[in-house]
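Researcher: For the record, we're logging two predictions in this thread. I'll number them. Prediction 1 follows.
Model: Prediction 1, sequence and structure:
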Amino acid sequence: MSNEKVKNLSMLSGSTALGAVGQLLFKYALPTNSGVLPLWLLSGFVAYGISTLIYFYVLSRVHLSWAYGIGGLSYILATIFAYFILLEQIPPLRWIGVVIITIGVLFIAIS
């Protein structure tokens, strides 16, 4: 892989991770009725905003079909965050889906 492709892949991965963190912060903020709701919600918006800016930057340099395909990482990360941080129960069939998505993202990344 070329240095440019590695750089773009790293930036897209970071963008996707920030988007997943934003989702986690939204989920964490919404069920609470405490005074920290605006802080968690605001943090989620900031994570999403930075994620979007990075995505725009990379999108201006690569094919949409490649960039959007790497975005599949968000499903993987959101499921992992839900399991380990929110302690959600993930059914086996959903884990199989995550594995299939992972394989697909790997195929897209190396193409």
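Researcher: Logged. Prediction 2.
Model: Prediction 2, sequence and structure:
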Amino acid sequence: MDFRIDRATGEQLEAARAWGRAEVRPVGLEADRLGRPIPVDHPYFQKMVARGEGRTRWRPKGTEEAGDDKPASARLKRSTVTSLLLAEEFAYWDRGVGVANPGPGLPEGNVLSAGNEEQKRRFLGPFLAPDKPRWACFAMTEPGAGSDAAAIATRARRDGNEWVLDGAKCFIGNASRAAWLLIQATTDPGKGRAGQRAFFVEQGTPGLGGFKIEKKSGLKAYESTSFTLDSCRVPAENLLGGDQRQRSGGDRRQGFRAAMATFNAGRPVIAANSIGIGRAVLDESLAFAREHGLLSRTRVRDRLEHMQRRLRAARLLCLKAGWQADQQRDNIVEASLSKAMAAQVGQEAATFGMELLGTVGARGDHLIEKLYRDVKAMDIVEGTGQIQRMIVARRLVGLPR
């Protein structure tokens, strides 16, 4: 394995570092102090659009090599390893802002891999060159189905040329501001995972509503939203992949597999985010210890070294998962290992940072205190640490995937 970065990747990381210092951390601190997500009309989002961000990787057929019209984030084909390094750098400055950023977001991968050409044109097309910030979101988590994604209860029933959706979703990022939501639902609870499908629901569709932005202890820059679907009707062509896939007799678990592929791809990213937050804690802890004359204490030096060693080990495991993805090798175990380990390491770092601050941490105005609240979510999102350990353990003893 070779994790050396080329000149182009180095330039991307330098640009991300400069942007993070000048724009990301300040707006993240602002959102945290005000206790609310970054507003849709905030100048930060306008700057993102002006930079060419918030766009889709999709290109209409015949225009894939058109070069000049590609957004800044897509001009270079990024390896998974490069994407992980950038995810780590962005989270170093503020992970919540990274989730709040406009763009097709989490469901883009589902649409690229499972959507038909008409759906890509219709739902990703507006993200080709947006004139304003736009969002999309993927909605799976429910009040009774979090880590066990196979237990979702939102129903989808066919009624002529429409699908009717009923249910409730929770903790969905950017849901109330999304132009469209990709909703995971079951067409037949008796079929378990085989009955799951995903549906495009556009904002403003009757029956989609009850949006409630949850109060969170950390990551306040983006909205985590609950909402309901009450006899929400969408056209038959809003089924991800279209009706042809539904009638084809192919893999009956395709809808569930597409959703799981999104989470599997996201786990090393969450690991990278955790490492980025941990790095920020390490740097702030070192600065605080130096400023207050604590570096002469053996225990302080020992804990700082321990923090650095654990973060480096977690990064190597994360990069290995990314390298395997680039080599098109099975990386499920490494993806789960990296996510479980990095989230734990990030929390360990933040806990020590708070111990080092002492009474200063109780004031609620130090960056480490914010990072302590932010990093906790890394063990929860994209499958909890317990779920990651179950995945690894099942593979270890040879149980079915």
